[in-house]
Amino acid sequence: MLTKRQQEILRYVQTHQREHGVIPSQREIQAHFGFASVNAVDCHLAALEKKGALVRRPGIARGLVLPHAHPVLDIPIFGTIPAGPPSANEQMADGHLAIDPTLFKLRPREEVYSLRVRGDSMEGAGIQDGDLVVMACRPPQHRDIVGALVDGEATLKRLVINRGKPVLMPENPNYRPIVATEELRIQGVYVGHVRVHR
Amino acid sequence: MLTKRQQEILRYVQTHQREHGVIPSQREIQAHFGFASVNAVDCHLAALEKKGALVRRPGIARGLVLPHAHPVLDIPIFGTIPAGPPSANEQMADGHLAIDPTLFKLRPREEVYSLRVRGDSMEGAGIQDGDLVVMACRPPQHRDIVGALVDGEATLKRLVINRGKPVLMPENPNYRPIVATEELRIQGVYVGHVRVHR
DNA sequence: AGCACTACTGAACATTTGACCAGTATGCCG
DNA sequence: CGGCATACTGGTCAAATGTTCAGTAGTGCT
Question: I want to staple A65 with a disulfide (CB 3.0 to 4.6 A). Which of A60, A146, B21, B68 is the partner?
Answer without folding.
Answer: B21
